[in-house]
Design goal:
This protein is an alpha/beta fold. It has helices at residues 20-25, 30-36, 40-50, 62-71, 94-101, 103-117, 131-146, 177-184, 213-225, 227-231, 264-270, 304-309, 328-342, 348-365, 371-388, 398-409, and strands at residues 80-85, 121-127, 162-168, 208-212, 241-248, 254-259, 280-285, 291-293, 318-323. The protein has three domains: 20-231, 3-Layer(aba) Sandwich (Rossmann fold); 241-323, Roll (Ubiquitin-like (UB roll)); 328-409, NADH-ubiquinone oxidoreductase 51kDa subunit, iron-sulphur binding domain (de novo design (two linked rop proteins), Up-down Bundle), CATH 1.20.1440. The protein contains 16 helices and nine strands. It has a five-stranded mixed beta sheet with strand order 6-5-9-7-8. A hairpin with a 5-residue loop joins strand 7 (280-285) and strand 8. It binds flavin mononucleotide (FMN) and iron/sulfur cluster.
Length: 411
């Protein structure tokens, strides 16, 4: 049976997350030391060539994003790093594990990112309900300041960087990067129109790098062990590992770090198999803004590219497993209710569209006589939303809906 490959989680459960000496003994801050011995552009090239891609959902090249941010607005007086630690996607709890069990790792990644783009100020936008993550991160920041890994002249260099925590208040939409920047600026959490992207005009209109916790946690490892080591993990096109959070009808739900390219079947096996030996029916990959798949996808490699080619998503790495007796219609309904609840109401297509979809899904659940027409109406509604909504939330319902229709509803 496949085993976990723990690189990001190598210290989890093994060191005291509140003791910086434990982290240092495990090789902590060596990646930062290496980064500071390199020019910022070399750090960006190393991460780019290693093939690190964003673990927040979209899978965008981290090095490329750093390059855009570092090359944008050269006259701007300030550049920011913003850590997306809001973790709002249903079924996702991977960043929480990093923050609770090895907070220095992502903090070190944040400082490396700041050096790469020459930022002097960073914010960690942390989900307010994650009390333990907040506590551990606060302690890590305090200790990093005390030991000279944060603040003025980091590790004796001429580089200075400060970081602060800001708490999210439970809005899913505030996990979206531009909405997060509005919230950080003290405004209501509604989205901005893209472009401009944060790299060009981000926090307080300055170039800003927004990265997910898991993404940043990879950086110290790549810097200290080198890009060739990282390229050797995963598949030819998708390097490194992914932390999957598996829940639903498996015997051992939880978080599992595996090389990119693992199959869904292997992942279920690692999670102890189907609960009580029930037959597999479906998986929802990537959370509410993800896609349903059926058993024909059990042997597909779970990488950003392969799943996209097959019409599915890897997203944040959330995997919710359903067994034969579970209702896909019910889970879809839960997703649609979630979108209705989280819609900020700023634009009409999403505000009314999410309400219409929930109403139609209620009809579906109550055994509507013309199921086929109802599903077609829902698909048309979500297509209209995807084409006309202001931000990615309104463009999301089409993903679970279309995939549920493809595999389960249109038969
Ligand atoms: C509605 C919505 C919610 C999101 N929530 C999160 C989140 O909780 N955490 C996260 O890292 N990214 C989230 N994202 C993705 C971010 O907008 C952004 O792509 C990510 O922080 C970029 O970091 P990465 O390149 O390291 O993945 C969300 C996106 C959308 C549209
Ligand atoms: S798409 Fe939805 S969440 Fe996004 S701005 Fe419009 S109403 Fe708000």
């Amino acid at each position: 049976m496949i085993q976990e490959t723990r690189i990001v989680l190598k210290n989890a459960g093994k060191i005291d997350p509140e003791n910086i000496d434990d982290y240092l003994k495990a090789g902590g801050y060596e990646g930062l030391r290496k980064a500071l011995s390199m020019r910022p552009v070399e750090v960006i090239d190393e991460l780019l060539e290693a093939g690190l891609r964003g673990r927040g959902g979209a899978g965008f090249s981290t090095g490329m994003k750093q390059r855009f941010t570092s090359e944008s607005c050269l006259r701007c007086p300030q550049r920011y790093v913003v850590v997306n630690a809001d973790e709002g996607e249903p079924g996702t709890f991977k960043d929480r594990v990093i923050m609770e069990q090895d907070p220095h790792l992502y903090l070190e990644g944040t400082i490396i990112a700041a050096w790469a783009i020459q930022a002097t100020k960073g914010y960690i936008y942390l989900r307010g309900e994650y009390t333990d993550s907040i506590k551990k991160t606060k302690k890590a920041i305090e200790d990093a300041y005390e030991r000279g890994y944060l603040g003025k002249n980091i590790m004796g260099s001429d580089f200075s960087f400060d970081v602060e925590i800001r708490l999210g208040a439970g809005s899913y939409l505030c996990g979206e990067e531009l909405t997060m920047l509005e919230s950080l600026e003290g405004k209501r959490g509604t989205p901005r129109i893209k472009p401009p992207f944060p790299a060009e005009k981000g926090l307080f209109s300055m170039p800003t790098l927004v990265n997910n916790v898991e993404t940043l946690a990879n950086a110290p490892l790549i810097l200290s062990k080198g890009k060739a080591w990282y390229q050797g993990i995963g598949t030819k096109r998708s390097h490194g590992t992914k932390i999957f959070t598996i829940s639903g009808q498996v015997n051992k739900p939880g978080h599992y770090e595996l090389p990119m390219g693992v199959t869904l079947e292997d992942l279920i096996g690692l999670a102890g198999g189907m609960r009580g030996g029930r037959p597999f029916k479906a998986a929802l990959l990537g959370g509410a803004a993800g896609t349903f798949v059926d058993s024909s996808m059990l042997k597909e490699r779970m990488t950003y590219d392969n799943l996209k080619e097959k019409g599915a998503t890897l997203g944040s790495g959330a995997v919710i497993i359903m067994a034969a007796e579970d209702s896909v219609e019910q889970i879809l309904h839960n997703c649609l209710r979630f979108f209705r609840h989280e819609s900020c109401g700023k634009c009409v297509p999403c505000r009314t569209g999410t309400t219409i979809l929930v109403k139609r899904s209620e009809q579906l659940l109550s055994g509507h006589s013309d199921r086929k027409t109802l599903v077609q109406q829902m698909l048309r509604e979500s297509e209209m939303m995807a084409a006309t909504s202001l931000c990615p939330l309104g463009q999301s319902p089409i993903l679970p809906l279309k995939s549920a229709a493809r595999y389960f509803l249109e038969h």
